[in-house]
Specification:
- This protein is mostly beta strands.
- It is 4% helix and 45% strand.
- The strands form 6 sheets. Strands 7-6-9-10-4-11-12-13 form an 8-stranded mixed β-sheet, with no helix packed on it.
- The longest helix is centred in the C-terminal third of the chain and has 7 residues.
- It is globular and about 60 Å long.
């Protein structure tokens, strides 16, 4: 969400007259999306003088009792978080909520950041061209990916980067040994290239060497490494172009790719998980009962664990 500036006036009819109630401007975040190899800070500002910005990092809506920061202050991001911010000022209507999702992954060797102007910046190792600056030179300071604009979400895997544009197209660059760029080739690419035959995407997520895309019709698509069935197409064949995930053709509202596992959340509250462990009789997704999701959430954070179909229903 890109917020505007200033104060919105709201007029209330009281006792035959009008009372003007001003609404606090929505806060502005310096970074709207990121996947980083180390902790980082997000700067938050607000155009309403003297407003206090309250925030949460667990996706809950901020209240006046939530942690706070003044305009121009910073919020540290140390782990995977959904940041929500809201501004308050006595005598004014509270602002709209602004949110952004971030991911800190110590297994990465580079970081990617999306600024609030839609520009993409990268820093760190560049041996595979994962910084997208047209070179393979490591960078100690962030560099802008010059060929990208109008981006609304970014993600990163081991040695590669992914960007989702406002127009629903997906762009990738970096290592491509397992087809993780989704461009129909297996060679390294040092500048952004559009993913083949994929449009109307509203969300992306990357694991170590595979990427998921959620389309506006509620279907999920994946490409890249598939040794553990993390693409959910019923095989263990790597894919250099997007394939539709079985059992996730509609009704999906969110996705998450882990190291070698994948997860999707349905609108009815159920979850679908695949990859990372052997699911009999194949590697296609299985519907996870609501009561089993707490156990699954713990297990899917460590892909060294092995779990069978019966385990999902007995734990």
């Amino acid at each position: 969400m890109r917020a505007g500036c200033g104060i919105v006036a709201v007029y209330l009819l009281i006792g035959g007259g009008f009372l003007r109630a001003e609404t606090v401007a929505a806060p502005v975040l310096s970074i709207m999306s990121a996947q980083s190899c180390s902790p980082f800070d997000v700067t938050v500002t607000d155009a309403t003088p003297a407003a206090t910005i309250h925030f949460t990092l667990d996706s809950s809506v901020p209240t006046p009792s939530s942690a706070s920061v003044g305009s121009g202050g910073t919020i540290p991001i140390t782990k995977r978080s959904t940041l929500k911010v809201k501004a308050f000022l006595t005598g004014h209507t509270e602002s709209a909520v602004v949110s952004a999702s971030y991911r800190v992954d110590v297994e990465l060797t580079h970081s990617i950041f999306l600024k609030n102007d839609g520009s993409v910046w990268t820093v760190g190792s560049n041996a595979n061209g994962q910084l997208g600056d047209g070179t393979t030179m490591d960078r100690a300071n962030p560099v802008q990916v010059m060929s990208l604009a109008g981006v609304k979400e970014v993600a990163a895997g081991v040695g590669y980067s992914v960007a989702l544009k406002d127009n629903g197209t997906v762009w990738t660059w970096g290592i491509n040994s397992n087809g993780q760029l989704g461009v129909g080739k297996s060679r390294q690419i040092v500048s952004p290239m559009q993913v083949s035959n994929l449009a109307d995407v509203c969300a992306i997520s990357s694991g170590a060497s595979h990427t998921l895309a959620l389309k506006s019709d509620g279907s999920v698509w994946g490409w890249g490494l598939n040794a553990d069935g993390q693409l959910g197409d019923g095989t263990t064949i790597n894919r250099t172009t997007p394939v539709r995930v079985k059992g996730a053709s509609s009704g999906i509202i969110s996705i998450s790719a882990q190291k070698s596992q994948s997860h999707a959340q349905k609108s009815d509250g159920t979850g679908i998980d695949w990859g990372g462990w052997r699911v009999e009789p194949d590697w296609a997704p299985i519907i996870v009962p609501k009561l089993a999701r707490r156990c699954l959430a713990i297990l899917k954070c460590d892909d060294r664990k092995v779990i069978s179909r019966s385990d999902f229903f007995t734990q």
